[in-house]
Design a protein that fits this description.
With 371 residues, the chain is mainly alpha-helical. It contains eleven helices and ten strands.
């Protein structure tokens, strides 16, 4: 029994180290600068030099967007570059053409951003300002995948309800039906009301499952190449803007009256209170954006930081690295379990707050009822 436990522990550690070592370490031929210009040597000499582990680079490569889908080690899938320039028109090619800051077709990739360059290979700021970049990046590809997955899940489930009409739900139906009822009864009805919740329910269900499924997809790795879609502030910004627009379109005169001139408040106080209320109207969607972005981003950074400790200590001493690896894996598994809960909670909180904003904007009451 002891030998089996020992074997199991070693298997976990070896598997984890093997899985992450490809992205953590690289052995590249590096030119020996000390012999440059030497008359005795006519050609450069190259040595295999082990690069030091860079935890910051590993973490940033995972959480930021890129023009390639990193799989493992030096293996990466190039993604389409789609550019439109008023000078050269439409250009479509794969991102591997711009590897190592190479110039291709008048363009150059530098710090994960594409610039237009002149014939000498120098960045042309004027031409770059007229460049429209609509490339398929890692986050965009992940977004397309999640949209396809969501459509497949719900179209399949809807078809199952048609085929098995009157029968008890099973399979995917048994998973989705409680969640749909939960969003309808505990979020939409409670925040918006029995009468008005139905017209908002399609959006609330869409945003709940979109955030939850993308949160989960971001956790299926914490592996090389994984995309953190909901940890991208652009996604949170887009969802928050949509919520803000729906809130404004749902608003009535009572909503605006309480923002611009709250009933029963002296005019002297309104001078201070009205700007605060107007500011709060814009602050609400901003809080939605930051909450989703920050929570999902922080979870990935913490989990990857624990893994990075293995390689940081291994560079100091191999034995210490092995010892730290046990605690790092345990904490990473704990963070992974915690992130599963956070993935659901963030979808729930975003949907609940959006429903509350919609309900407040369309609330009907008199001044006496308000008091």
């Amino acid at each position: 029994m002891v030998n089996k436990k020992k074997f199991f522990k070693q298997f976990i550690i070896y598997t984890s180290l093997l899985f992450f070592s490809n992205s953590a370490f690289a052995y590249d031929p590096v030119e020996n600068d000390s012999i440059k210009g030497s008359k005795a040597v006519s050609s450069p000499v190259k040595e295999n030099v082990s690069e030091k582990f860079n935890a910051g680079k590993l973490i940033m490569d995972h959480i930021v967007d890129s023009h390639e889908w990193h799989i493992a080690g030096h293996i990466a899938l190039p993604l389409p570059i789609i550019l439109y320039s008023t000078n050269t028109g439409l250009s479509i090619f794969l991102s591997n053409k711009l590897e190592d800051e190479q110039v291709y077709n008048g363009f150059k990739l530098e710090k994960n951003k594409i610039f237009a360059v002149n014939k000498a290979g120098v960045i042309d700021e004027a031409a770059s300002a007229k460049l429209w970049d609509i490339s398929i990046t890692k986050n965009v590809a992940s977004l397309f995948f999640s949209i396809g997955l969501i459509l497949w899940i719900f179209l399949t489930t809807a078809k199952a309800y048609t085929i098995n009409a009157g029968k008890a739900p099973k399979g995917m139906q048994s998973l989705l039906e409680p969640l749909i009822i939960f969003v309808r009864d505990d979020i939409a009805k409670s925040a918006i009301g029995e009468k008005k919740h139905k017209k908002y329910l399609p959006f609330l269900l869409t945003v709940f499952f979109f955030i939850w499924i993308n949160n989960m997809l971001g956790l299926i790795p914490i592996i090389p190449g994984g995309a953190n879609v909901t940890g991208n502030i652009a996604i949170g910004l887009t969802l928050a803007v949509i919520v803000f627009i729906i809130t404004i379109l749902s608003s009535n005169k009572n909503y605006w009256r309480h923002i611009i001139a709250m009933p029963g408040v002296p005019i002297g106080v309104l001078v201070l209170l009205t700007p605060i209320e107007i500011f709060g109207m814009f602050l609400k969607p901003f809080v939605l954006m930051v909450r989703l972005f920050a929570n999902m981003l922080a979870g990935h950074i913490i989990a990857l930081s624990f893994f990075s400790l293995i390689f940081i200590f291994a560079e100091l001493n191999a034995g210490v690295g092995w010892g730290v690896s046990i605690f790092s894996i345990v904490f990473t598994v704990f963070m992974g379990m915690l992130e599963l809960l956070v993935a659901f909670l963030q979808a729930y909180v975003f949907t609940l707050l959006a429903a509350m904003y919609f309900g407040t904007a369309g609330e009907e009451h008199s001044h006496e009822e308000h008091h």
